[in-house]
Amino acid sequence: MGESEQIVNFRVSRGVPGQKIPQRSGIQIPYLEYYCRVCYLTVNRSCHPLGSLTMFNLFSAFMGGTAAVDPAEAVAAVGDNRALLIDVREEAETRSGMARGALNLPLSRLHLAADPASGHHDTRLAAARKAGKPLYLYCASGARSGRAAGILKQHGFPEVHNLGNLGAWQRGGGAVLR
């Protein structure tokens, strides 16, 4: 780590999406959502106005802690029925296109779909858990699918990957239904 970089540690309690974070070490980072607990961000002090946040650290901290995934690997695993592909966009968003073989479980309903005690538990998700299948998630940008990965990990799914967006699926050779 260079002289102009340091690790910034701050805690965010559950709050309101869009809440401003109090300044710590002279940095104010707005719009962090309530999914975050403790974050360690690498900040480059020589970059203005906020410093540069290392994108891996940012996504790792806020988006479910999933590592990068090879889209072609995801397409192959889903095509061979070794994995389950989940689109976490809202139903209206899927009208513009959806990955072939994807299950639409919007982020807004994912807690219920993943909870076996819920009356709204999704049986396909339960079957994937029982079979030990990895889950690949996508949305419009990768943000919601990252949050969804965190939710599914909290519900005991051991292998959850954030594919990012529908474009990543296509770059990996996956078909899109329109």
Characterization of the model:
- The radius of gyration is 18 Å and the shape is globular.
- It has helices spanning 55-62, 71-79, 110-114, 123-131, 143-154, 166-171, and strands at residues 5-11, 38-44, 52-53, 84-87, 98-99, 103-104, 135-139, 160-165, 176-177.
- The chain has a four-stranded parallel sheet, sandwiched between helices. The chain has a three-stranded antiparallel sheet with strand order 1-2-3. Strands 5-9 form a two-stranded antiparallel ribbon.
- The longest helix has 12 residues, at 143-154.
- The chain has six helices and nine strands; from the N terminus they run E-E-E-H-H-E-E-E-H-H-E-H-E-H-E.
- By secondary structure, it is of the alpha/beta class.
- It folds into two domains: 5-62; 71-177, 3-Layer(aba) Sandwich (Oxidized Rhodanese, domain 1).
- Mean pLDDT is 76; it is low at 1-45 and 47-57.
- Kindly state the percentage of residues in helix: 25-40%
Q: How many individual helices?
A: 6
CATH superfamily of the largest domain: Rhodanese-like domain
- Let me know the largest β-sheet: 4 strands, parallel
The beta-strand count equals 9
| Secondary-structure arrangement, i.e. CATH architecture of the largest domain | 3-Layer(aba) Sandwich
